[in-house]
């Protein structure tokens, strides 16, 4: 059997947001801009992560449904800890301070 003709191959589906725009603009790095100064995310010293204001802005601009952290337990905590623990990157920066990754794992009480 020969190779399939590329013109006859099915085209990949483009993921759509709830407002029917595609994700390509976010994939190119043009996503939602969040700032510590505007109170949309926490600094590393306070555990990193998004504030309620930051989650609301992200949800509004992307059509997502982000929820608050679940550090006390439950299926979302288990899933977050498993995913985030496996992310590449150091737990401390070159100055010895914890990175945002380390701070978020600590805030979620991941072991």
Task: Give a description of the structure.
With 111 residues, the protein is an all-alpha fold. 33% of the residues lie in helices and 0% in strands. The protein contains four helices and no strands. It has helices spanning 24-30, 52-62, 75-85, 100-107. It is globular and about 55 Å long. The mean pLDDT is 80.
Jot down its keywords.
111 residues; mainly alpha; globular
**What class, by secondary structure content?**
mainly alpha
Low-confidence stretches: none
- Work out the oligomeric state of the chains in this entry: single chain
Write down how many β-strands occur, each being a DSSP E stretch of 2 or more residues.
Answer: 0
Q: What is the overall pLDDT average?
A: 80
What overall form do the CA principal axes indicate? globular
Termini separation (Å)?
52 Å
**Helical stretch tally:** 4
Measured by DSSP, the beta-strand proportion falls in under 5%
Describe the main β-sheet briefly.
Answer: none
Sketch the topology as an H/E string, one letter per element.
HHHH
What level of helicity do the residues show?
25-40%
**Nearest-angstrom radius of gyration?**
19 Å
């Amino acid at each position: 059997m020969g190779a399939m003709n590329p013109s006859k191959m099915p085209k990949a589906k483009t993921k759509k947001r709830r407002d029917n725009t595609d994700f390509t603009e976010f994939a190119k790095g043009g996503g939602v801009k969040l700032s510590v100064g505007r109170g949309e995310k926490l600094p590393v010293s306070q555990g990193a992560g998004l504030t309620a204001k930051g989650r609301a802005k992200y949800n509004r601009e992307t059509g997502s449904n982000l929820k608050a952290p679940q550090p006390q337990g439950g299926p979302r905590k288990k899933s977050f800890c498993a995913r985030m623990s496996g992310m590449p990157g150091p737990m401390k920066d070159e100055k010895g301070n914890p990175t945002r990754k380390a701070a978020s794992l600590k805030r979620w009480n991941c072991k």
